[in-house]
Amino acid sequence: MTHYRRIRMEGGTYFFTVVIANRRLDQLVRHIDLIKKSLREEKEQTPFVTLGFVVLPDHIHALWRLPEGDTDYSNRWRRIKARFSKFLPPDESVSMSRKSKGERGIWQRRFWEHAIQNDKDLHRHLDYIHYNPVKHGLVKHAADWPHSTFHAYVERGKYNRDWGRGVDIDGEFGE
After folding, report:
1. Is the pLDDT of residue 138 over 90?
2. Can you spell out the DSSP letters for 49-90?
3. Entry pTM
4. If you ran DSSP here, which 8-state letter would residue 20 be given?
5. Which residues lie across from 14 on neighbouring strands?
6. Cβ neighbours of residue 80 under 8 Å, at least 6 residues apart?
7. Which of 143, 140, 145, 146 shows the shortest CA–CA distance to 163?
8. What radius of gyration do the chain's Cα atoms show?
9. What pLDDT score does 1 carry?
10. Would the pLDDT of 5 be above 90?
11. What is the spatial distance between Cα 158 and Cα 175, in angstroms, rounded to a whole number?
12. DSSP code, position 15
C-alpha cells in the first residue's frame, strides 16, 4: 500500500483542494445542500474551525484550523465524502478497482493539502479561495458566487464587496 506523506501539525491550519472524479460534472453545486450538511455533521462530530471555503461545480477549496492536539484532517475528509456520496443515486461509472474496495466513483481518492505557515500564507490562501470562481470563469466578480465564505468576510469588513478586480494570484494551490 502506498503511504502518502502528509504534514501533521497539532492544532494546525490547513488549505485543502478536494475534487470529484468526473470534472465535467457539477455535482457539488447541484447538491450544495448535501455538501453543507455533510460538513456540518462532521463539524459537530469532530470540531474544527472553517476559516475559508468555496464550493465550485467539481471541486472544493477549504481552509481549516484544527483543535489543539488534533492532526486528523484525513478522516474528516473521508467521512465528509462518504456522507455526501451516500445520499446520491448510484449512477456514476465505477472502475473494477473501486468496485473491489466497495467504493463509489464520485470523488477522487486523494486530496491536496498545504499547512499554512504564517499570516501572509493564510491571507494568500484566503484570497485564492475567494477568487477561485472568477479564475474558473464562473462569475466576473467574487461577490457574484454564492457558495463561498467571501460574503461572510465582506460582512465582517475584511473584504470590500468589489474586491478581486485586477487581482493576480499565482502559485501552487493544488488544482
Report:
1. yes
2. EEEEEEE-SSEEEEEEEPPTT---HHHHHHHHHHHHHHTS-S
3. 0.86
4. B
5. 64, 115
6. 35, 38, 39, 42
7. 143
8. 16
9. 47
10. no
11. 26
12. E
